[in-house]
């Protein structure tokens, strides 16, 4: 055994690391334990050194040209010294890299220490002001809460005062704008509320005119009604033989079946009464407007009718308007167009029941660009909105007015308000509505207005269908005088704004009706113009023919308005009407005494007037 082997009992490792990578993969160990002193680290290493104090360390560095400040070495100086030492050529690669690594770590530690020192100093400087600022913020928050509560209380008080002022103003306005020709009774009940009348009794207490009070009461009753009728006149009327008690029981049974099927009815919904109408419909009255509105909802309506009977429909109450000067591009038969009108006009869905042109399209002038439209709505509120604000149709703002009731006319005998229609007219022959002869109006060949003859007022110059007919005007005024609602611009509701009367309409029912003065004639000293060839009606009320016995309900055709398309001029030689032949003979051989007059037509009529009784 070699001597060296005997002195070293521990055998060397099988293979020592020969490369730098192999050396780096050896197990790492701590170079310095903070709990031990430098002397303790050096003890046991076999290394003898005199550098164990700060002075010896400075001396060693100075000897090698590395001077550290006497006031105390900073970390930056030590980092620089270590980097400089790592560049010493005598050191191996391992020691050089280790020294540089230590220098980098010390640099990071130094930056961390500087940052912490800065934070500590800033905290010391700002600690007091920040605390003071926090206190002030808390104080401001407390003040803000206090002021917010005060502002909220003040706003509530101002809002309450404003509401009271508005109510007082409404009361003053309501009492100031009463019709001047109606005496307002004294309010003896001490009720000075500002709301509008909600019932007949409330309206009476408010001093509303008696006719309007009755109208509002009737409107309130109508809001509780529903009309049930046959789906068509050809369907069998299964309700005509039932009594009112049975009809009410039938409706109550339908509601009960709906409830048992799971449909939730409005609270305390009940049917009060049933009234049988002449045409076969049944007018039901419910206990509350909300109940009638609930049944009018499409889903509830269908459910109710399924339990009520077959071939039965619920008809909506209609409110008719006349829209003036509507662009002819408007299609009244298009549901999409009607829905667009509802959307732009702010109306509810399906508020518009139907729309139609007053004059048939075939009778339009080729250059006509607008036409009048009859609009039917199911809501009184929507109708009043259109009357007041108008509505946009085809990009144009149009305005409407109530379509007032007018006299109905039999298309066979041409009589107004006769109580029958052409299908059951008692007259044997037809009376022409244009010339008054005994033939149908559609087959009349007269297109000269001077040859028109009215079968109602027995006057030449206009036809029976003319809206300028004195009898038509008188009948219309008489009918409107009996209809209180026709006196108002709007459909009256509880809103006082809808109580405006139509200009020129009186609201005094005690005023006697007087027919219009339409028999005035213009008299000239040289020529006498005669517009009537028959004896005029001197007293309309006395000479009105006795009414015929009613045989049915009048149904007006929707398109029978006095707008006739131009017809070809009749041939007097082939015309069958005696009136046309007579007029032809007169025109072909005028009297010799007037052939030289400046106005041949006027002179001809003046000459013919000599044989007519009742004319001067």
TrEMBL record:
<feature type="domain" description="CCHC-type">
    <location>
        <begin position="409"/>
        <end position="427"/>
    </location>
</feature>
<dbReference type="GO" id="GO:0008270">
    <property type="term" value="F:zinc ion binding"/>
</dbReference>
<protein>
    <recommendedName>
        <fullName>CCHC-type domain-containing protein</fullName>
    </recommendedName>
</protein>
<feature type="compositionally biased region" description="Polar residues">
    <location>
        <begin position="563"/>
        <end position="587"/>
    </location>
</feature>
<dbReference type="InterPro" id="IPR001878">
    <property type="entry name" value="Znf_CCHC"/>
</dbReference>
<feature type="compositionally biased region" description="Polar residues">
    <location>
        <begin position="178"/>
        <end position="194"/>
    </location>
</feature>
<dbReference type="GO" id="GO:0003676">
    <property type="term" value="F:nucleic acid binding"/>
</dbReference>
<feature type="region of interest" description="Disordered">
    <location>
        <begin position="1"/>
        <end position="21"/>
    </location>
</feature>
<feature type="domain" description="CCHC-type">
    <location>
        <begin position="453"/>
        <end position="471"/>
    </location>
</feature>
<feature type="region of interest" description="Disordered">
    <location>
        <begin position="497"/>
        <end position="516"/>
    </location>
</feature>
<feature type="region of interest" description="Disordered">
    <location>
        <begin position="531"/>
        <end position="616"/>
    </location>
</feature>
<feature type="compositionally biased region" description="Low complexity">
    <location>
        <begin position="588"/>
        <end position="598"/>
    </location>
</feature>
<feature type="region of interest" description="Disordered">
    <location>
        <begin position="178"/>
        <end position="203"/>
    </location>
</feature>
<feature type="compositionally biased region" description="Polar residues">
    <location>
        <begin position="605"/>
        <end position="616"/>
    </location>
</feature>
């Amino acid at each position: 055994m070699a001597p060296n082997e005997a002195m070293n009992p521990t055998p060397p490792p099988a293979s020592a690391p020969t490369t730098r990578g192999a050396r780096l993969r050896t197990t790492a160990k701590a170079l310095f334990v903070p709990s031990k002193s430098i002397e303790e680290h050096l003890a046991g290493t076999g290394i003898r050194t005199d550098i164990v104090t700060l002075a010896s360390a400075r001396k060693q560095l100075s000897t090698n040209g590395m001077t550290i400040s006497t006031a105390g070495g900073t970390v930056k100086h030590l980092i620089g010294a270590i980097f400089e030492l790592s560049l010493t050529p005598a050191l191996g690669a391992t020691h050089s890299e280790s020294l540089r690594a230590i220098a980098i770590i010390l640099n990071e530690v130094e930056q961390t220490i500087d940052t912490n020192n800065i934070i500590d100093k800033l905290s010391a400087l700002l600690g007091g002001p920040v605390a003071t600022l926090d206190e002030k913020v808390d104080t401001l928050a407390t003040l803000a809460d206090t002021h917010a509560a005060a502002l909220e209380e003040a706003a509530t008080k101002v809002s309450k005062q404003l509401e009271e002022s508005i109510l007082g103003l409404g009361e003053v306005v309501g009492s100031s704008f009463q019709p001047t020709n109606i005496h307002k009774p004294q309010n003896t009940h001490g009720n000075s509320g500002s709301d509008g009348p909600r019932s007949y009794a409330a309206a009476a207490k408010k001093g509303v005119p008696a006719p309007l009070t009755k109208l509002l009461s009737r409107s309130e009753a109508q809001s509780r009604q529903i009309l049930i009728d046959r789906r068509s006149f050809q369907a069998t009327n299964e309700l005509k033989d039932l009594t009112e008690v049975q009809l009410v029981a039938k409706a109550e049974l339908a509601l009960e079946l709906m409830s048992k099927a799971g449909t939730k009815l409005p609270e305390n919904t009940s049917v009060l009464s049933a009234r049988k109408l002449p045409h076969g419909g049944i007018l039901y009255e419910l206990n509350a407007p909300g109940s009638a509105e609930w049944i009018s909802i499409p889903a509830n309506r269908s459910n109710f009718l399924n339990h009520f009977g077959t071939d039965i429909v619920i008809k909506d109450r209609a409110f008719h308007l006349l829209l003036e000067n509507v662009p002819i591009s408007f299609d009244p038969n298009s549901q999409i167009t009607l829905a667009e009108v509802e959307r732009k006009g702010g109306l509810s869905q399906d508020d518009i029941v139907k729309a139609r042109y007053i004059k048939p399209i075939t009778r339009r002038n080729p250059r006509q660009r607008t036409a009048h439209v009859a609009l039917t709505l199911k809501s009184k509120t929507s109708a009043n909105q259109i009357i007041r604000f108008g509505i946009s149709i085809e990009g144009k703002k149009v305005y409407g007015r109530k379509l007032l009731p007018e006299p109905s006319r039999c298309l066979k005998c041409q009589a107004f308000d006769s109580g029958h229609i052409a299908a059951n007219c008692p007259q044997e022959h037809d009376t022409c509505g244009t010339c008054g002869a005994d033939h149908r109006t559609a087959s009349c060949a007269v297109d000269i207005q001077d040859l028109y003859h009215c079968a109602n007022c027995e006057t030449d110059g206009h036809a029976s269908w003319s809206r300028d007919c004195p009898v038509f005007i008188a009948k219309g005024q008489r009918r409107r005088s009996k209809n209180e609602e026709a006196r108002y611009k709007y459909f009256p509701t509880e809103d006082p704004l809808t109580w405006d009367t139509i200009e020129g309409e009186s609201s005094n029912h005690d005023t006697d009706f007087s027919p219009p003065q339409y028999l005035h004639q213009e008299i000239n000293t040289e020529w006498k113009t005669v517009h009537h060839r028959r004896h005029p009606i001197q007293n309309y009320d006395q000479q009105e023919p006795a009414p015929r016995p009613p045989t049915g309900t009048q149904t007006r055709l929707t398109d029978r308005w006095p707008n006739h398309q131009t017809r070809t001029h009749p041939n007097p030689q082939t015309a069958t009407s005696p009136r046309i032949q007579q007029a032809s003979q007169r025109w072909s051989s005028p009297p010799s005494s007037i052939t030289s007059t400046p106005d041949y037509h006027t002179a001809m009529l003046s000459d013919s007037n000599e044989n007519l009784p009742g004319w001067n």
